[in-house]
Design goal:
Blueprint (H helix, E strand, L loop, with lengths): L1 E3 L19 E5 L5 H7 L4 H7 L1 E5 L1 H9 L4 E7 L6 H12 L3 E5 L1 H8 L7 E6 L15 E6 L4 H13 L4 E5 L8 H7 L8 E4 L1 H8 L5 E5 L5 E2 L10 E5 L8 H5 L3 E4 L11 H12 L7
Parallel strand pairs: 1-2, 2-5, 4-5, 7-8, 7-12, 8-9, 10-12, 10-13, 11-13
Antiparallel strand pairs: 3-6, 4-6
Helix pairs in contact: 1-5, 3-4, 6-7, 6-10
Bound molecules: S-adenosylmethionine (SAM).
Protein name: RNA methyltransferase
Family: Belongs to the class IV-like SAM-binding methyltransferase superfamily. RNA methyltransferase TrmH family.
Pfam families: MRM3-like_sub_bind, SpoU_methylase
Amino acid sequence: MSRDRDANSSAPPARRPDTVAPGRVKEVTSVSNPIVKDIRNLALKKHREETGLFLAEGLKLVLDALDAGWRIETLVAAKTQLHSELLQKAAARTVSLGADVLEASDKVLAAIARRDNPQSAIGIFRQRLHRTDELDAGKDGLLVALDRVRDPGNLGTILRTADAAGAKGVILVGESVDPFSLEAVRATMGSIFAVPIVRLSEAEFLRWRGTFKGLVVGTHMKGAVDYREPPYGKRPTLLLMGNEQSGLSETMAGACETLVRIPQVGRADSLNLAVATGLMIFEARRGSLKL
Ligand code: SAM
């Protein structure tokens, strides 16, 4: 493991060559260090798109991501926590994979995480999206399609819920929030590394939907069918959820076999998207989930 005491290198987060030479360990103490600035820029969508990278906070998350084979580019580790065996393990794995470890001051970690009391580890990972032909709902699995989801907290919560219920993938349709934004990744609590994500335009989605052989259920405030009625779990199921403000577009609603509604009483016009998706996912997976 080579060690570099220079805190002011202007190199961007390291890109690994295909042959795996060990990464390097560097100390960074200044928030104005160009490496830190570059990593902080990953809070911006434009920079995430340009680099194809994103940030994931937390030691457990980093270790889970490494276990799941996600490609780490840089690990930022709290210098004050380096006595922790787990953190050392994460650092050693990172270096052996050819990626760099930055031993950072608490101030640097807080600046990258954009909050006080940051976690002891922040991983910079390469984004991973899937193609539709990589989705496999099997004979009775569930896929969830989100029409123009806008709120990163909703998306992260939905990914976490989809993971918890064993859904086989989440499809983002149309202009959606970036699943790799800091807020969305935070809300997934690590499920970003577990659930295959596909991004499609509406036209691409409709073409693919034409090839989907299972049950296609849409949720709609004008749905005439109780959400507990469709015969989920007998064939693969594709569940369509609408945008936070405008619901499912007409075209998307027209692509569904059934439009269902979750009955409500009280004053609320509708449920929060993540809550509605949670109810739908667990209903659709009811037959497969056992304590
Ligand atoms: N004003 C929007 C409308 O009329 O469709 C409300 C959208 S709601 C906040 C966001 C999404 O959550 C909906 O498109 C639908 O997918 C789901 N949803 C919320 N409440 C629901 C309910 N009671 N039944 C079925 N789906 C619901």
